[in-house]
Amino acid sequence: MIDLYYWTTPNGHKITIFLEEANVPYTLHPVNIGQGDQFKPEFLKISPNNRIPAIVDQAPTGGGAPISLFESGAILQYLAEKTGQFLPPDLRGRTEVLQWLNWQMGGLGPMLGQNHHFSGYAPEKIPYAINRYVKETARLYGVLNQRLADRDYVAGDYSIADMAMYPWIVPHAMQGQDLNDFPHLQRWFETIAARPAVRQAYDQAKTINPAPKAFSDEEKKLLFNLEK
Fold first, then answer.
1. Residue 172's pLDDT is what?
2. Which residues contact 4 (CB under 8 A, 6 or more apart)?
3. Percentages helix, strand, coil for the chain, rounded to the nearest 5?
4. 151 lies in the same domain as 208
5. Under a CB-based contact definition with an 8 Å cutoff, are residues 109 and 10 in contact?
6. Can you give the pLDDT at residue 214?
7. Domain extent for 8
8. pLDDT, tens digit, for every residue of 52-91?
9. Which pLDDT belongs to residue 66?
10. At CA 70, angle to CA 68 and CA 72, rounded to 5?
């Protein structure tokens, strides 16, 4: 029913987690971003920003032609609405989930992505940039930790907001963070990590990219638009 164009990144994991949690049939189409698959014309028709993930719903609600989507937050919302799962139907519950989903899309993901880049991928180690994004990561972890001080999940019940955030916390050590410093976040993280659907999503990743390794210099040039 769902064709998922995917690679084993935090944004890719968001969608496999949802599909496994909701028990939605899907077919994985690997898009190897280190090899430049994201620039192929057939993929750009689905994802014009040349980023994964993207989906094609072959059987949209109401029928008609297949629907394609890019941007992980939009995909999560679409799938939640399609299946009636992990997004509350009431105004207040829905608003709570969507504001935290957008917090992840606009803040947590981009800032942690910059942390990954300057700490691990940049050809030149720039102390100011590394320090800037490690500190911003800690600030965002603190926001999430405080939010989770009096609730099990980010927006009440387990939702697409949690699915969006969890994969970005998985590489916390790479981000210069110790979850012991954020006890409420750590409890939430361990709870989600133990969910069978989440484990299945990460097991699925191993079938696509069984031995993840550091990007080569050529792959970095491709990924980050560096001068050749």
1. 98
2. 15, 16, 19, 26, 27, 28, 29, 53, 54, 55
3. 60, 10, 35
4. no
5. yes
6. 75
7. 2-86+200-221
8. 999 999 999 999 999 999 999 999 999 999 999 999 999 9
9. 97
10. 130
Residue ranges for the chain with pLDDT beneath 50 = 228
Specify if 228 maps to a domain. no
Question: Based on the structure, what is the number of domains in the chain?
Answer: 2
Q: Of the candidates 87, 221, 109, 129, which has an alpha carbon nearest to the alpha carbon of residue 170?
A: 109
Q: 107 and 182 share a domain?
A: yes
- What pLDDT is recorded for position 79? 98
Residues 59 and 105 in one domain: no
In this structure, what CATH number is given to the domain that contains residue 126?
1.20.1050.10
Amino acid at residue number 27: T
Query: For residues 225 and 9, what is the distance between their CA atoms, to the nearest angstrom?
Result: 18
Q: At residue 193, what is the residue type?
A: A
Amino acid (1-letter code) at residue 17: I
Taking the C-alpha atoms of residue 105 and residue 92, their distance in angstroms, rounded to an integer, is: 20
The single residue listed with the structure tokens 């980023």 is 51
What is residue 211's predicted lDDT score, i.e. its pLDDT? Answer: 76
Tokens 């180690």 label which residue? 125
Tokens of 27: 């077919």
Beta carbons of 164 and 18 less than 8 angstroms apart:
no
Strand-pairing partners, residue 4, are 28, 55
